[in-house]
């Protein structure tokens, strides 16, 4: 079990081979509550030696057959049990997620329920992995078998900590893979907490190993480790590029879920009230720390002024507050580093566009990384605040003339994770849906995500898909089996 050193400040170990173990060098680092700036936990600062132990434990669990050779039903049942446990402990996990990352408690509760749903979904999918009979033109039986990729190294960000862990662990486990997971340095706590229940739900030792620490010292060794067959990464495009280069060394399979600068597009014929809510929700949910945030808000000129005024007016009423307060709609940003980064972008924005709302830190709070919901308008799509991912509550509102103009601006981005179109004209909407270069297009909504449907990016938003059967595919190999049914010699020599 993880151990506490003093009330409310827990010290965790690494979870390797089914046991809590300190890091080889014995170093830990502090985990901060971003609303109070106080230390809430100490976790190991793992290095390559720890990753090596974790990778070997995962390899051993894979090779021993304790997981991959368990029946699919058996694996599925363990995932169901884990889901049930997570659901029953939802309030506790949600509170920890909220304290650790600054996420409003109501949103954290949604996330933890989605975590449980994700394990349930893949528990069900474990028994749906099926091979194929190939119609070869010979007297032979040709089969395609589906097999687990092996050991998966999984590196995740801080914005949806346990949900990102679930998106990676659940399909990998359903496929029969074993895992080495590295949570983000800022938000490792909920992933560590669920490891307390692995034994209780009968997950064999070594199947899931959790290594906490920093990107270069704990993440990079995962990418470089020869016993790890696949890397599943969610994070920034800049780190994604480093990972892709490193993975080339030993030809690891890689899936990358990277950032975005997603257009949320409003035509004049959209329902106005819904549109305003959709624009704000699209960019300010989770303090804007969302990969698919609708951070470029494209508005047709016919309604532009009225739209900006209404957005600004409503944004000023968004309730900022402590994450555990049920009325809070926006908590603090996750860390001092992210807070400084967002404040810098606010300054850049002031030079590039007009300020409608916000534009600085939220002054009502003495402590904590609180930032005002910020709306810049009359933004040109070439501005830095329209091109670079800010990953905070900063919206860039951009006017457009026509459908063609909207499409040109929307697709003019290095990213292609998500887009949304708001209109009541089905023909125009469907033309936009087809032409937008993004992994998801919402119509008259923005942000709902379901475990049953694929998630992933176009362009520099990455490649590979998570969730649904697509997510499972990424953890499966295909083996061809050819069974000769002729009893005669081959007859070639
Ligand atoms: P980072 O890319 O900085 O970090 C992501 C993870 O990678 C962290 O665990 C980090 O460790 C680790 N890491 C950092 N450097 C290396 C390295 N050299 N080798 C291996 N691992 C490394 O992203 P953030 O955590 O800041 O998350 C925000 C980003 O994630 C945004 O760009 C966002 O768009 C993206 N994201 C994408 C999603 C999607 O589905 N497409 C979903 C959620 C977020 P450490 O924390 O210690 O730095």
Secondary structure topology:
Blueprint: E1 3-6, E2 9-11, E3 14-16, E4 19-21, E5 28-33, E6 38-44, H1 48-63, H2 72-88, H3 90-101, H4 105-125, E7 132-134, E8 140-148, E9 151-155, H5 161-175, E10 178-182, H6 189-195, E11 208-210, H7 215-224, E12 230-234, H8 237-249, E13 253-257, E14 263-266, H9 272-284, E15 296-300, H10 304-315, H11 336-352, E16 354-357, E17 374-377, H12 384-387, E18 394-400, H13 403-411, E19 415-416, E20 418-422, H14 426-435, E21 440-443, E22 458-459, E23 462-463, H15 468-473, E24 476-484
Parallel strand pairs: 2-6, 9-10, 9-12, 10-11, 12-13, 14-15, 14-20, 15-18, 17-18, 20-21
Antiparallel strand pairs: 1-2, 3-4, 5-6, 7-8, 8-24, 13-23, 16-17, 19-22
Helix pairs in contact: 1-7, 2-4, 2-5, 3-4, 4-5, 9-10
Bound molecules: NADPH dihydro-nicotinamide-adenine-dinucleotide phosphate.
The site of NADPH dihydro-nicotinamide-adenine-dinucleotide phosphate has 29 residues, from helix 7 and helix 8.
Keywords:
about 500 residues, alpha/beta, seven-stranded mixed β-sheet, six-stranded mixed β-sheet, 24 strands, about 35% helix, disordered N terminus, binds NADPH dihydro-nicotinamide-adenine-dinucleotide phosphate
